[in-house]
Design brief:
mainly alpha
Length: 140
């Protein structure tokens, strides 16, 4: 006799889930004497009991997750603070360099202006002496 096989790619998970649900429903109907209302109340009571058991497990694990999250947050905060401090230090260094550059440039500019002033004054004094020597009546 030949056996009937399902196609190789067929997923059997829905079949197993449906059989499991039918088995659970059958258990509750049988224990309730066939009354759907009593079976539903029993199922709700059992679901509430399972839910409370699961919830009692979660807080213990939740505190561990919370502590892990807090430590990760503190590490991230420390890294952020370190980055901000580095940026502030680099900014202060750049400001100092800019101040020094500004002072040296200002001093150089003043020195160049003084040199130009002296040159103009010397040239003006020479021109004045040359002009006064031409125009002075006593030097002939």
């Amino acid at each position: 006799m030949a056996t009937v096989r399902p196609p190789p790619n067929k997923n059997r998970l829905p079949l197993y889930l449906g059989l499991g649900a039918a088995g659970i429903a059958g258990y509750y109907f049988y224990s309730a004497g066939g009354s759907p209302k009593v079976a539903a109340k029993d199922a709700e009571r059992d679901a509430a009991r399972v839910t409370s058991a699961v919830k009692s497990e979660i807080p213990g694990r939740g505190t561990a997750y919370q502590k892990d999250a807090e430590s990760a947050a503190s590490r991230a905060g420390a890294k952020f603070d370190h980055t901000v401090d580095d940026a502030k230090a680099k900014l202060a260094d750049a400001e100092q360099k800019l101040e020094r550059f500004g002072k040296s440039t200002t001093e150089d500019l003043k020195q160049k202006i003084d040199e130009a002033d002296k040159t103009v004054e010397n040239t003006a004094a020479k021109a004045k002496s040359g002009l006064s020597s031409w125009l002075s009546p006593g030097n002939k």
